[in-house]
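User: I'm putting together a teaching handout on how multi-component assemblies are represented. Below are the sequence lines for each component of a complex, exactly as they appear in our records. Could you produce the 3D structure of the whole assembly as structure tokens, so the students can see both representations side by side? Please keep the chain order the same as the input.
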Amino acid sequence: MAIRINADTGKLKKILDEQRKAGRTIGLVPTMGFLHQGHLSLIERSRDEGCFTVVSVFVNPAQFGPNEDLDSYPSDLERDYELSVGAGADLVWYPQREDLYAPGCQTAVMPGALAQRLCGISRPLFFGGICTVVLKLFNLVKPEMAFFGEKDFQQLAIVKQMVADFYLDVRVIGCPTQRASDGLAMSSRNARIPAGKRDLATTLYRTLASARRAFRGGERDGVALEAQLRAQWPQGLDLDYLDFREPLLLEKVERLKADTRLFLGAWLDGVRLIDNGAIK
Amino acid sequence: MAIRINADTGKLKKILDEQRKAGRTIGLVPTMGFLHQGHLSLIERSRDEGCFTVVSVFVNPAQFGPNEDLDSYPSDLERDYELSVGAGADLVWYPQREDLYAPGCQTAVMPGALAQRLCGISRPLFFGGICTVVLKLFNLVKPEMAFFGEKDFQQLAIVKQMVADFYLDVRVIGCPTQRASDGLAMSSRNARIPAGKRDLATTLYRTLASARRAFRGGERDGVALEAQLRAQWPQGLDLDYLDFREPLLLEKVERLKADTRLFLGAWLDGVRLIDNGAIK
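Assistant: Of course. Below is the structure of the complete assembly, with chains in the same order as your input.
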């Protein structure tokens, strides 16, 4: 069993203060709910680090653009609780909108260059909204460690940058992408992939696997390989980006190295799909 | 005597941790140096609150626009130390640029509607730069209390809003404007008022006094009074704004009340002058 808190930031803080006094390290797994194995691996990692593990479930309006899928974002709060408990969470917190965005609130975080590429091009409000809510969550929960998935590698890099730039006392820990047996990266949005189009959705993973094969085969020319991968891209899957980039500043690279990552973004009938991975 | 720290954030944090363990409350007075009686009143207030009082001296580049007076901002670090000690500071910290803006740093705070009026019109980067550096200072020093002057009333309101919006554990305390005997609000920039133009600089205070007299005389029509005050504005002093506003959201008001404030901004031969005060 885990403690369940609906809204009530005061109760949350009281419990966390007690845990801190008892010598526990606080670990935070921020989620938008509709949990899957990716989230559960973060909770398990926090548990394995010995943390008193807080899972927050909050669909953050500030990171959705006006024409995005805020209203259709999948949700199942009961299942989220059960799955969190199963993975080792100590506390599941469901903040309400006013717990994180009080009436009249207006101050936001503005990330920099890292947010102006990849997903940031088609979703200009996205990373500012993420940073803003993550900073609020960090300041309320005051975790020593926070766990984010590498599936959202750009988000992870931007949050780490915010933590460094604002001198926040939290260790941000990136955890490996979890995949279904067909390779599709776990995502809450996978539930909205239209029936019969699952195979198309796995294009992102298959493209990554293809790039890895080419690299193993000796290919080092990123420009040529990118052109080849784009040429194989199927109809019916709207490509947003397909880029080779280095893993720190996420700058484009032309010469492939072992730590170069392939970043992929697309829409399948309006469902956002992203993936990424090191080429080796 | 007070502790003096040049750069060396590690040493700063160690000393503050010791003070906290000894049960002291930390008070922060963030300044851009070239201290005057306004700053000293903040230091004295922090001392009177029983705080271990930290004065930071840092001319924050992020709050200056490209054509503003960053390079000519007055400075006298030795005098700042002596004056801080005299007013009761326990520690004077001189961060270097890289202590607050490490190479590659890029995350900023973006204030909201409160920053898009008054000084925010002519200085669009100003309050974002202030919020960003104040958040960094708060996260490094972790003060329980921080002291700001009401001379910069809009800054005070924006910082309070940031503290509320980001759930920061710091009490922001506004302290009354300090004035010279001729009424001129204390400001480091007063040192740059050209010889022989001091009287012109006191226009802001005299306009505030004039508005107070009118209010005492029964005037409640803010639109009429504003027009009258503008008509009396002297040549040679470039008016930026002259507005009656309420003290919380800084919205314009037409009907004057006791808590209505007059806000004034101007340039005198390129020297920025601001002032404000309650009309009663």
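A couple of points students might notice: The CA atoms of residues 93 and 169 of chain B lie 21 Å apart. Chain B has a mean pLDDT of 97.
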